[in-house]
Amino acid sequence: MKKILILNGPNLNLLGKREPEIYGSLTFTDFFESIKKKYNTVELSYFQSNIEGELINKIHEVGFSYDGIVLNAAAYTHTSVALGDAIKGIETPVIEVHISNTFSRETFRHHSYISAVAKGVIVGFGLKSYELAIQSFL
């Protein structure tokens, strides 16, 4: 059974409440329960943190034993050299995902420290971005 981690960065714990016109009204917990049922032949796990170091620690923890990491680093995507370095240091492939189309938003969101070290990037498909990333590992 494949093991895939969904790893969410800062403020994504507010999905369903935060800017629903951009991020939708579904909580991530509800979404995660639905994809666990849909992809029941995959061992899906989920971790979210607003703290950069905790995200790096989780990448190190699973980066040699999991089959894939679906990473929405949120705002850290555009600021964290350390997250990019953590991904470079592991064997597990990472797919960078974003719920919104970051290229249609503020200019600072057009740069990613993750993209160059990720297996691929999926942006702008809402929560479906996560499913597309999971499918890429199957």
From TrEMBL:
It catalyses: 3-dehydroquinate = 3-dehydroshikimate + H2O. It holds the Pfam family DHquinase_II. One of its GO terms (biological process) is quinate catabolic process. Its EC number is 4.2.1.10. It comes from the Bacteria. Substrate binds at N72, H78, D85, I99, S100, R109. The active site is at Y23 (proton acceptor), H98 (proton donor). The keyword Amino-acid biosynthesis applies. The record marks R18 as: Transition state stabilizer. Keywords: Amino-acid biosynthesis, Aromatic amino acid biosynthesis, Lyase. The keyword Lyase applies. NCBIfam families: aroQ, PRK05395.1-2, PRK05395.1-3, PRK05395.1-4. Belongs to the type-II 3-dehydroquinase family. Homododecamer. This is 3-dehydroquinate dehydratase. It comes from Formosa sediminum.
